[in-house]
Each structure stands twice: as structure tokens, then as C-alpha cells.
Amino acid sequence: MRALVTGVAGQDGSILSEMLLEDGHEVAGLVRREPDVALDGVRLVHGDLLDAESLRRAVAEAEPDWIFHLGAPSFVPLSWERPVETFTAIAAATAVLFDAAASLDRDVRVYASSSSEIFGDAGESPQNEASPCRPLTPYGVAKLAALQLARVWRGRGLHVSAGIAYNHESERRPERFVTRKVTRGAAAIALGLADELVLGDLDAVRDWSAARDVVAAARLMVEQDEPDDYVLASGVGRTVRELVDVAFAAAGVDPDEHIRVDEALVRAPQATLPVGDPEKARERLGWRPTISFEELIGDMVAHDLRDLQAAREPPSSCP
Ligand SMILES: C[C@H]1O[C@H](OP(=O)(O)OP(=O)(O)OC[C@H]2O[C@@H](n3cnc4c(=O)[nH]c(N)nc43)[C@H](O)[C@@H]2O)[C@@H](O)[C@@H](O)C1=O
After folding, report:
1. Would you kindly state where each structural domain of the chain is located, as residue ranges?
2. What atom in ligand 1 is closest to the CA of residue 202?
3. pLDDT tens digits for 250-297?
4. Which CATH number applies to 178-205+236-269+292-312: 3.30.10.20, 3.90.25.10, 2.40.160.20, 3.30.450.20?
5. Which residue ranges does the record assign to the NAD(P)-binding domain (predicted)?
């Protein structure tokens, strides 16, 4: 199969591309500019989520059998600073891609990445595909608009599935997200490179999974006869404090001496706990997360320890 992956330089896109290439598929990756990560084997096509014509051209050029639409702004607080850009890059770009996919002279199957932020104050926890959607951020509203677009295009015959993904992580997560901030911080403290880690709300709850597991579900969706929406989650809510405990234990450091809370980083509290019910994905896709929370965070800490250690070692001198 020939796949077009948007967001190919990001965490999910790069992981998915590797999986597809390993299975012998061809991958075209949408990039805005030359990527600063290695994307071996990926054919780059240029396009910008904020530029509809460039997206149409990229789809025509890639001639895909599958489109995995993973590209989007993803740091939720930034959507308050850039609401229009966020909405355009998420909702409008999704409409352009669906329209371009439906206009191709070939059968194309599409996966669109949605988010648990669509639920916001849903009023029930855990959430499933039928839970009320009351998003609380511009990002969540844009993701809900994109999901609704998937549903209406599906109604008109496009094979488009959506993953309503809860937080999913890996060593490729940028450090502005809490998991990577914590694993990097714990590793830096363990190596004596830092003394404190400044965080926001330690009682905030999230449902964390491994990005590799979540991305694997996207593959399963395009292979189904019928397209649909699926919650992708572990089903377990954990606090940021639990995340800190697991990461610092993996690094061999006592967190109590090193964590400081900065009120400026604390977000508005959420009445509904963002925890997902992945039953439908389990039942219909046979989807099973394979990486536990402890394993995920342990691997991220180990990666950060290696990375920071390598960065501080003096370069070997040439003879
Ligand atoms: C499903 C959803 O998942 C992600 O969005 P997010 O949940 O906002 O991710 P995050 O890692 O920024 O925050 C997680 C929690 O951790 C709390 N927290 C405490 N202290 C810090 C802190 O110091 N930094 C950050 N970033 N968060 C902190 C923070 O208040 C929040 O409760 C994106 O992939 C998004 O694209 C997406 O769709």
C-alpha cells in the first residue's frame, strides 16, 4: 500500500511511518519544511496545514491508498494564545484532506486522529464513543469539529475512521508535555545536571498509554471493512504525582527533595476525569495495549539517562 502520513516528523507520524515501512508499505510524509529528524525511507511531500492548496497538491502527488492524518498543533495551552491558527490547522485542514481524498480517482482509506479533549466536561467518566462532548479549550473544539467532519464524510461514502486518543507518550514526546518533562527532569537530577523540577498541578489526572500502542490502532482501523470511531485509552487514570513517583523511582532519585510547584503552570481544574473506555476498540479491532505505564515511563527515563550522559561526555578526539 502507499500511505500518506501527515505529521510525519512528529511522535506519532514517525512511529507509524517506521511500522508501515517495516511491513513493506510505501510512505509519503507531509512536511512543512526540511525535517530535523531522520525519516529514512520516507518520500517527503511538501505542504502546510494552513495552506489548503498545498494540501490538495500533496494528496494528488502522493496518490495514496491510505491517508493517516496525524498532523496538528498538539500543545493544548497554546490554543488559547493562537485560537484561529489552531482551528484552521485542525478543523479546516481536515476538511481539505477529506475533500481531496474523496476527489481522488481511487479508493482511499483515511484515518484521522482525534483527542480526548473533545469530551471536556462530559459529566461521565470513563468516556466512550457515545459520551457527551463539551470541550473546554479551543483545541478541544477544533478536534471535535474535525471528528464531526469525519462522521459527515463517512456518511457520504468516504472510508474514514477516527481514533479518539487519550494522552500517549514515548521518548519522542517534546519536553513541553508533562511525561517527557518529568522523565527528562528525573534523569537530569539523577546525573547531577539539575537540582529541581518545576511542575504544575500534581493532582491532575490523565489516562496515559504508549504512543506505539495507539499508533498501532490506526493501522487496524484502515484495515477494517467498515470505518468507525474508536476511543484509544488505557482505561486507567493516574495523577501527575504518580507519574513523578514512577519516573523518579526509575531514575533512583527521591522526588520529595526536588519537585517544586509553580502556580503559573497549574491549569483550570476539570470536573470530569479524562479517562477513556477502550472496550469498543478491544472488541471490534482486537486492539490490546502491549506496553504498561511502568514500562513506558521506565523506557523514557532510560532513554533520557543515555541521551544526557552522551551529551555530557567529551567528544572522542581524533588520532
Ligand atoms: C489528549 C491530549 O493529550 C495531550 O494534552 P495534555 O493532556 O494537555 O498534555 P500535557 O502533557 O501537556 O499535560 C498533562 C497534564 O499534566 C498537567 N501538568 C502538571 N504539571 C505540568 C507541567 O509542568 N507541564 C505540562 N505540560 N503539564 C503539566 C497538566 O495540567 C495536564 O493536566 C496532548 O497530546 C494533546 O494534543 C491531546 O490531545
Report:
1. 2-169+209-232, 178-205+236-269+292-312
2. 19
3. 999 999 999 999 999 999 988 899 999 999 999 999 999 999 999 999
4. 3.90.25.10
5. 4-300
CA distance 158 to 257: 55
> What are 246's three cell numbers?
514512577
Counting from 1 in the atom list of ligand 1, the atom nearest the Cα of 177 is: 11
Considering the candidates 74, 125, 139, 234, report the single residue annotated as catalytic.
139
* Ligand 1 atom index nearest CA of 115: 38
115 is catalytic: yes
CATH superfamily for 2-169+209-232 is: NAD(P)-binding Rossmann-like Domain (3.40.50.720)
Query: Atom 12 (ligand 1): residue with closest C-alpha?
Result: 177
What φ, ψ does residue 33 adopt, rounded to 5°? -145, 180
Give the bridge partners for 67, in sequence order. Answer: 4, 110
Which grid coordinates belong to 82? Answer: 493562537
For the chain, count helices (H), then strands (E): 11, 13
Residue 53 falls in the annotated catalytic set: no
Please state, in angstroms and rounded to a whole number, the distance separating the CA atoms of residues 9 and 199: 27
Q: What is the pLDDT of residues 170-214, one digit of tens each?
A: 999 999 999 999 999 999 999 999 999 999 999 999 999 999 999
Do residues 21 and 43 touch, judged by C-beta distance below 8 A? no
